[in-house]
Amino acid sequence: MKVLAYYTNGMVNFYMRPIEGIVMVVDLELMKIVKYHDRFATTVPTAEDTEYRLEKQNPPFGPHLKGTAIVQPDGPGFEIKGHTISFDVRGVIRQCVLQNQGGRAAFGSVELSITHASIYDLERGKYRQVLYRAYVSEVFVPYMDPTEEWYYKTYFDSGEFGFGLSAVSLQSGVDCPNNAIFMDGFYAGQDGTPVKISNVTCVFEKYAGNIMWRHTEIGISDETGLRKTLESLMFDDFSDKRGQIGREPGGKVGLTGLLEVKAVNYTQASQIKAGEYGTMVGANTIATHHDHFLTYHLDLDVDGAPNSFVKTNLITKPVAEEGVPRKSYWTVSSKTARTESEAQLHLGLEPCDLIVVNPNKQTKVGNNVGYRLIPGPIASTILFRDDYPQIRAAFTNNNLWVTPYNKSEKWAGGRYVDQSRGDDTLAVWTKRNDDISIQGGRKLQPVDRASIHSKVVNGAGGKRCVCEGHIDKLIRSCSLLPKNKMIARLPYMPKDGSNDLFGSHWIRERIAQYVSSLCHILWWLMRLKSGMNRKIENEDIVLWYTLGFHHVPYQEDFPIMLTLSAGFELRPSNFFDRNPVLKTKSPKPVILSCKP
């Protein structure tokens, strides 16, 4: 493991005083330094202005913040039984299950996931499923300094460090409001022993700051949140799963903590030359540019498991009728993705709706029931695709992927991320040849490339080349035989070597080799085509949504960063027959008697 050097001198925030130019490699089994590299020397930043503890601050001080409190005289609008949370928010009832899943036992990690989320439909008088499972699958944080001391700083917070090991206990009044209810969590340690983290999750309601709807009446909007805080190296990430009236849980993440800084000899921004990779935030201190990408696994089951993904584009059209004062209008054009490749989206400025529908369930007026994903601010990776960190994090190549449900496909960066080569990521799964569909609905199980061979055999009436593998039946020169064998027939070739176009043995062999090579080429083409086109229409599907930040540091982020937040929403789209909160009763007014 590579180890960095810092100058502490009794200070808490020693991360702001790196000893640049020194890199050590430590053998963790021997607990010895096996490599020491001292490439250059530079000035160690001073400790000035790096203290973030309030009791260590010097005047002048800012204003004293006024206290706030949330009062719920009738109790919270949710009920917790074990790991099941039932929300009865102003009459809209939801249920979901919190599950601490130890999918990465080798790393002792755990993730807070929402499972089996359903909503009660008053009009239909029953619970209707919306979500099977949702969680953060991976977090990718690459730093933009290619120098020898920094190039490897491309962190995978979930796969390399583990959310279980990074999770901390939450504090009332600090991480969560005073009306929060706390829940403990467990993860499997490296030896399999269950490890308990007290108060790792909190559930609370807060005033959302907006109204449910308004025409002539006013309603108060409540938001119920689930929070978990993760400490990973320099940054503290707090992850919220939230639900509002008329909506299902969305996701929100806040980034705060310490910047990763680099020691330099400069003391003024005007002195910086080309070749530096960040912003000067203090004397002899540069904060390095970096990204944050969080990939969410969203297994939606909208009114049941068979779902489809629909992208609805907004298209501007000219007015064709004469005598109309308007010249243009916009309309919608919807397309249902049939395969994985059609649902790989790189989002931009073009307006569109991203909807998961159940084509087997309709509203009273005939619309397919659905839920739509409303993305947050768009930030996509801008690294080269062949850059080694990006190969490992190829799941960030798109903002959205849609795949058929596969029990083994849980972690976007792969099951074993440490020292991975990028050969088990979400981007690789979409190219995997899980099965090949041919006309007639027949599916062939894949075979290893090592098992594929071709041979020339003699048959009645002439010679033929046999290639074992998978070839689409539509290839006219080939026919599908039992046991997945494909035969490409050559023209008739007499065995006696008589004067014939194919009488020469050398010509016959060259043709056989040519056809054999053609078989291999066609097989690989079909493998690539089919692997990138697993069927997702009217299937049990999973959305993989990546929320991103390009972080250019500023001095306000030093020595500790103000929280930067972003999120996404899941909102019903023709799921209900009408506004589901019309029959919601307003809360009783709460009157507090305060002494002067």
Automatic annotation (TrEMBL):
Q: Which UniProt keywords apply?
A: Copper, Metal-binding, Oxidoreductase, TPQ
Query: Cofactor stoichiometry and binding?
Result: Contains 1 topaquinone per subunit.
Q: Which SUPFAM superfamilies match?
A: Amine oxidase catalytic domain (SSF49998), Amine oxidase N-terminal region (SSF54416)
- Can you summarize the PTM annotation of this record? Topaquinone (TPQ) is generated by copper-dependent autoxidation of a specific tyrosyl residue.
Task: Report if keyword Transit peptide is assigned.
Answer: no
Q: Name one GO molecular function term.
A: quinone binding
EC code(s) of this entry: 1.4.3.-
Query: What GO terms in the biological process aspect are recorded for it?
Result: amine metabolic process; response to jasmonic acid
* Cofactor(s) in the UniProt record: Cu cation
| Segments forming domain Copper amine oxidase catalytic | 70-222, 252-437, 533-582
Q: Does the keyword Nucleus apply?
A: no
Q: Which InterPro entries match?
A: Cu_Am_Ox_Cu-bd, Cu_amine_oxidase, Cu_amine_oxidase_C, Cu_amine_oxidase_C_sf, Cu_amine_oxidase_N-reg, Cu_amine_oxidase_N3
The Copper amine oxidase N3-terminal domain is annotated at: 2-40
The entry's family comment says: Belongs to the copper/topaquinone oxidase family.
The record, for PANTHER family, names: AMINE OXIDASE [COPPER-CONTAINING] ALPHA 2, PEROXISOMAL-RELATED (PTHR10638:SF87), COPPER AMINE OXIDASE (PTHR10638)
Identify this protein by name.
Answer: Amine oxidase
Q: What is the scientific name of the source organism?
A: Eucalyptus grandis (Flooded gum)
